[in-house]
Amino acid sequence: MTPGPPGTWANPTGAINPKEIGKRDVSRTRPDGSKLYVVMESPTLLNKAGSKTVLAGVFLSPNGSISGPYNQIATVDGAGETAARR
After folding, report:
1. Residue 38 near residue 26 (C-beta atoms within 8 A)
2. How many other C-beta atoms can be found within 10 angstroms of the C-beta atom of residue 3?
3. pLDDT tens-digit profile, the chain (86 residues)
4. How many angstroms separate the most distant Cα atoms in the chain?
5. Are 24 and 37 contacting, i.e. CB atoms less than 8 angstroms apart?
6. How many angstroms separate the Cα of 2 from the Cα of each of 5, 6, 10, 60?
7. Number of domains forming the structure of the chain
8. Cβ–Cβ under 8 Å, residues 43 and 23
9. In this structure, is residue 51 part of a structural domain?
10. Can you give the residue range of the structural domain that contains 34?
11. Contacts for 27-33 with beta carbons within 8 Å, 24 or more apart?
């Protein structure tokens, strides 16, 4: 997931499915930027009639690398409620 034109990322490793990369917000921890968090929309859910959410999940790259590996740390259940993962 290298910075580039909107919608372009290299192939991330770990829990992010490269086919499910949608709009996203990326944030680093302060002050050292050693961890990278991504909140991502799912293009599949966005186009699914009756979907209660478009959130693919919240992901963490513990080493701070844009390429990952990523762990999914939160998602939305079928009722539209956010659920943290451990």
Report:
1. yes
2. 9
3. 444 455 555 678 899 988 888 889 999 998 898 999 999 999 888 888 888 888 899 999 999 998 899 999 998 775 555 566 54
4. 42
5. no
6. 10, 11, 5, 16
7. 1
8. no
9. yes
10. 18-84
11. 28/64, 29/64, 33/64
